[in-house]
Amino acid sequence: MAASAALLLTAAACTPGSDSPSGSTSAPSTVKTDAAALGDVQLTVWDQEVRGGQAAQMAELVKQFQAKYPNIKVNRVSRSFDDLKTTLRLALSGNNAPDVVQANNGRSDMGEFVKAGQLVPLDEWAKAYDWGSRYPGSVLQYSRYSADGKTFGEGNLYGLPQVGEVVGIYYNKEKLTKLGVQPPQTWAEFEDALAKAKAAGEVPMQFGNLDKWPAIHVFGTVQDRYVPADQITTLAFGRPGASWKTPENTKAAEALVSWVDKGYFNQGFNGQGYDPAWQDFGKGNGVFLIAGTWLQADLQKALGDKVGFMLPPGEQADAKPVVTGGTGLPFAITNKAKNADAAAAYINFITSPDAMKVLTSTGNLPIADTSEQQAPAGLAGDIFTSFGTAVSKEGLVPYLDYATPTMYDTIGAALQDLLAKKATPAQFLEKLEADYSKFAGK
Question: 71, 92, 115, 125: least CB-packed within 10 angstroms?
Answer without folding.
Answer: 71
